[in-house]
Write a structure and sequence with these properties.
- There is one protein chain.
- The protein is α+β, with helices and mostly antiparallel strands.
- It has two domains: 229 residues; 103 residues, Arc Repressor Mutant, subunit A, CATH 1.10.10.60.
- The protein is 54% helix and 9% strand.
- Strands 3-4-7-5-6 form a five-stranded mixed β-sheet.
- Helix 1 crosses helix 5.
- The N and C termini lie far apart (59 Å).
């Protein structure tokens, strides 16, 4: 059984939309479409700081914005924006590793929805699902973390995959699916494909992305239920989720990556954006949404790095200068005097005397 693996890098990663079903759709379009996808990947890899070997690992995941970039280019190749919905129609059990088997072995419709909600991080660690009661209905709501680029392809993919899993787990002729699907975005030109995939009335411009279920169907048993295997898979899934990224603010993510880059004197906005799997424009926009600017953040980070290492009284001042991102000692001394009104040596002596 394949288990999803995460590329070790900060920021959101995704596996759902770049896996086997998507490749099958391109394969059906002909060898030229697959070749173009490969060329697109090779073009995008340097931009996002990844290697071809990293993505060749079975179940490997890539940065969220790289996925969006890849889907956008592939939609152009195929001549349709319904690429994700087409991929869902090509989905097969096991395409997404552990999560597929975990959901399939749940006991009831309600158990499958609860399991998917708890373990959405196996597919994407920048998205959330929640179950809410609404009169005689139960609503499964899809949401993004604040630092994740929003696009209909992701809500389509997650909610559509849940419906596909339910159909398979319930068996032929089952009627315990959603009674309606709601999407925050307006109806796209490929609206009909939604109905084909979801098999229920679809409403757009609803302010949220969600599947609506009559609460009475949640107790419907699944034909593929296996309580013993399900418990074993749950333990494995819990172990995997412990290694998922911590939900930290986007500003904190930028600071962490920028500090790593400072030592190489490459902490420019473009290099940090690539490490985070976003474009420089996206990084700038998200920081502005948080009330921050990269230049100010970097200045404060350099100040923190310098004062922290000088207070520890271990590293030579020249080494601290490099770690703070300065290639010239004189530039470091000028900046340090601006920050603290003294030289690094005077700062260190004052701290050591305390």
């Amino acid at each position: 059984m394949a288990v999803s693996q995460t590329i070790a890098r900060p920021g959101p990663t995704v596996s759902l939309l770049v896996s086997k079903p998507f490749v099958r759709v391109l394969d059906m379009a002909g060898p030229q479409a697959l070749e173009q996808r490969q060329q697109t990947l090779l073009t995008l890899l340097p931009r996002y700081g990844l290697s071809a070997e990293a993505l060749a690992v079975d179940g490997a995941r890539m940065p969220h914005d790289m996925t969006l970039d890849l889907l956008s280019r592939s939609a152009s190749t195929l001549g349709t924006d319904a690429v994700v919905l087409h991929a869902l129609q090509a989905w097969q059990m096991g395409d997404h590793g552990l999560g597929d088997y975990l959901n399939a072995t749940a006991a009831t419709v309600g158990d499958l929805l609860a399991t998917t909600t708890q373990f959405i991080g196996l597919l994407h660690d920048g998205q959330r699902l929640s179950l809410r009661a609404d009169g005689e209905d139960t609503v499964l709501v899809f949401e993004y973390d604040e630092d994740v680029t929003v696009h209909p392809w992701f809500s389509e993919g997650v909610l559509g995959k849940i419906v596909a899993e339910l159909r398979r787990a319930l068996g032929p002729g089952a009627t315990a699916g959603p009674s309606a699907a709601h999407f925050a975005h307006h109806a796209p030109g490929y609206e009909r494909a939604y109905r084909d995939v979801l098999g229920c009335p679809v409403h757009f411009g609803q302010g949220q992305d969600a599947l609506v279920f009559p609460s009475r169907v949640l107790e419907t048993p699944l034909a593929t239920a296996d309580p013993v295997l399900h418990e074993l898979l749950r333990r494995q899934a819990i172990s995997l989720l412990r290694t998922a990224r911590k939900r930290v603010s986007f500003v904190d993510q930028v600071r962490a990556v920028a500090e790593e880059e400072l030592g190489r004197n490459t902490a420019d906005q473009g290099s940090v954006a690539r490490r985070l799997g976003v474009s420089a424009a996206t990084l700038r926009r998200r920081l502005e949404e948080c009330g921050a600017r990269y230049s100010e953040l970097l200045e404060e980070l350099r100040k923190d790095v310098a004062s922290r290492h000088l207070s520890e009284c271990v590293l030579p001042i020249e080494e601290i200068s490099v770690r703070a991102g300065f290639s010239q000692r004189t530039a470091f001394y000028r900046a340090f005097h601006r920050w603290f009104g003294c030289t690094p040596a005077e700062f260190r002596r004052a701290r050591s005397a305390r």
